[in-house]
Amino acid sequence: MEVLSVASEAYPLIKTGGLADVVGALPAALAPHGVSMRVLMPGYPKVMEALAGGREVWYFSNFFGGEARLIAGRAGGLDVIAVDAPHLYNRPGNPYVNSAGVDWPDNAQRFAALSFAAYELARGTVEGYQPQILHCHDWQAALVPAYNIYNAPTPAKTVLTVHNIAFQGRFGWDVFNSLKLDYRSANEGAIEYFGGIGYLKAGLTCADAITTVSPTYANEIRTPAFGMGLEGLLQVRADKVHGILNGIDDLAWDPMKDAALPQTFGAASIPQRAVNKDALCGRFGIEPGSGPLFAVVSRLTWQKGLDMMVPLIDEMVARGATLLVLGSGDPEIENGFKAAASRHPGKVGVEIGYDEALSHLIQAGADVMVVPSRFEPCGLTQLYGLRYGCVPLVSRVGGLADTVIDANEAAVEAGVATGVVFAPATADAFAEGIRRTIALYERPKVWHKMQRRGMKSDVSWELSAKKYADLYADILGLERDADTDD
Ligand code: ADP
Ligand code: GLC
User: Fold this and answer.
1) What are the phi and psi torsion angles at 319 (to 5°)?
2) What's this model's pTM, rounded to 2 decimal places?
């Protein structure tokens, strides 16, 4: 099956979060299931650099206000087609915002253009290339199904994956004429959303299948508490919604081979993590205490619940714990952590910023990976934590609920616990989760067993890749040959 994955970021070319990890990992995960997957993405400067030897496969003389080319080639281990439209994408910094953190004013056109390019490829524009499925990710690619239905038809089917329903791509009607979208789409049953245009809404209405990144989130987004206004539509389309759990790229995230670590290790050599912990403490200026070293690697936002952590730090330190934080986001949360670091020198270390290699060292050296999200479609940091023996402390929402087994006494007894799960996602329950984690750390045998169990739990793409392949086959009306999956 020939699938074109359409996304605004893909690791290792460009990454701001888990979306990139997933888009970057899917092609290799799906290859054993008879799926050939290319990635269509914007030609940001980093992408064009990596594609220096690429081939021009199409030219647009007037593409959303300027010239553009489709450039195909291998980059970062992926088969990439980049939309090389300098007037839209040749900008410094982040794919979505300028250096002041403000959305680029033409994001409506920038991501409509990405979607339109996918639609052009589905029409068979490039000789010898006919994608059968357009697999679109998040609002940035969510107009693809709308083009596919309302503009001239193509033979392709569409799958839309929701990685985060909080980001919906909402714009005013003033942008409509620039979108090259047939006027018949301009109604409530298609792209209209609360008086304007909703890209994610359009995709959810028009896609042949909808997926999201965990079974629990697939249920949650059909409720008002998590659906962010789209729950009604998702209820109507419930038979098209599938929850398929993310896996991790086990080549990029392998504690036995990770080049970012001073000391590699496996489930049979967990004590060797101590070398990484020393390196980590040195880097953050932390003197290890009697309690566990808690770690945060995250966007510092309301979604992630980290504002709830700031007032709990004094108690954590009083109980012998230490804490390090790597992340950036809301200034208030950043400042809260920074203030805690100055109150507790040697006990709390904070690095505001983004550092891929350091994130590996943290997973390999810290004791606890903290993910207290208010909502979490899947979450990858707890999966990396499991794989690296960094015990996850998580709230019971979305993919966190689906991937971590709480260390209640029954689970500890049965030897199946892999972390600490608290509910509801409130400061009080979180505080209790922290206390339980510290108490478990004081039982070294239980703790080590939990680490080992986590390291052995299946966080690979294997099962989920098959689910995607089966879904593609299903919407193409193909009989799946049992042999294909072997
Ligand atoms: P989300 O995509 O909602 O931010 P995920 O847990 O799915 O959350 O994915 C986050 C990804 O970004 C992970 O790969 C994580 O390691 C990485 N990450 C987040 N913040 C940082 C940071 N400050 N430095 C390095 N990597 C980070
Ligand atoms: C989003 C979600 C996160 C998920 C990631 C990859 O960024 O917030 O939970 O893991 O996408 O699917």
Assistant:
1) -90, 10
2) 0.96
